UniProtKB/TrEMBL annotation:
InterPro entries: Flagellin. This is Flagellar hook-associated protein 3. GO terms for molecular function: structural molecule activity. GO terms for cellular component: bacterial-type flagellum.
């Protein structure tokens, strides 16, 4: 009775060892095949919590970096749009200078005025551009068309363009201490003298169509307004470029921080292949030894039942 009980206990222990070694061996196979050695808290609670922390921080930082890239794209597009407007204003300034020539006939002056009308429409289209389905220059009113034609003169030319957007910029919150304007208001197009770019161009066009005695003074005033508009646009471009520079610097810091978290997570989680192979071989040897032992206890032959 005692012998059978002892044999039963030994068999139970060996089977338990076989089960344990089989599980350990499967874990080593998994670690080697996947390259990951910790997937559950039970495997190493301290390292698992560290891995979870680094993983969470990596996702948070990656999300912030993605947001910065989106902001960069939007601000780059705004800068390019303002540069396009500045180029149009440069041409308008050249036309104003050309129009001051008193020897030009009326047909030439009308042609110059027509070109200014084209410029007004061009700037109107630029000022109503969108990025990610939001208007660039409508401020916080992202879905409101910022500039609309509100009146025409008796000859069908644009006489007034009205701003319909918000008076507040739409700001982007990058961190607790980094907040920058993202979508700008129509003040971008407002000069220091209270005129907007459209009114300055309309005044320039009307000056080109004015009679000769008044033309010179009107053109002089219009040229001054155009230069003020260009100076204002240049200042806005400089301000946005400063924000872009700050975003690039912050993004580089985040890239380094993200890399550090990823390295730490990898070091904690990645399989040490040399160690894993040694441990796998040990588990395999122990499993084989246990299987051999249990086989000896149940090593019966058909001949045992003949006698």
């Amino acid at each position: 009775m005692n012998l059978r009980t002892t044999q039963l206990n030994i068999t139970s222990q060996i089977l338990s060892q076989i089960q344990r070694y089989s599980y350990t061996l499967s874990q080593h196979y998994r670690d080697i095949s996947s390259g990951v050695n910790i997937t559950r808290p039970s495997e190493n609670i301290n390292n698992y919590n560290k891995i979870l922390y680094h993983s969470t921080e990596s996702k948070r930082i990656s999300s912030t970096i993605d947001n910065i890239h989106t902001l960069n794209n939007t601000l780059d597009y705004i800068v390019n749009s303002l540069l396009d407007i500045n180029n149009v204003l440069l041409r308008a300034s050249q036309i104003a200078s050309t129009g001051s020539d008193t020897t030009l006939d009326q047909s030439t002056m009308r042609a110059l005025a027509d070109e200014i009308d084209v410029m007004i429409n061009n700037i109107l289209n630029i000022s109503n551009r969108k990025m990610y389905d939001n208007y660039l220059f409508s401020g916080a009113a992202l879905n409101i068309t910022p500039f609309v034609i509100s009146s025409y003169d008796i000859n069908g030319r644009i006489n007034n363009i009205t701003y319909m957007g918000s008076t507040n910029n739409s700001n982007a919150f990058i961190s607790d201490d980094i907040i920058i304007p993202l979508y700008y208001t129509g003040n971008v197009f407002l000069q220091n003298n209270g005129k907007n770019i459209f009114q300055s161009l309309i005044d320039l066009r009307n000056a080109l169509l004015a009679d000769l005695p008044q033309r010179s003074s009107l053109l002089g005033s219009a040229m001054q307004d155009i230069e003020l508009a260009r100076d204002h646009i240049t200042g806005v471009i400089g301000s946005i470029s400063s924000h872009l520079s700050g975003l690039r610097s912050y993004s580089e810091q985040l890239d380094k921080l993200l890399y550090d978290h990823q390295v730490m997570q990898s070091e904690l989680q990645s399989t040490d292949y040399a160690d894993a192979i040694v441990r796998m071989n040990q588990s395999q040897y122990l499993l084989q030894a246990s299987m051999a032992i249990i086989a000896r206890y149940y090593n019966f032959s058909f001949l045992d039942y003949i006698t």
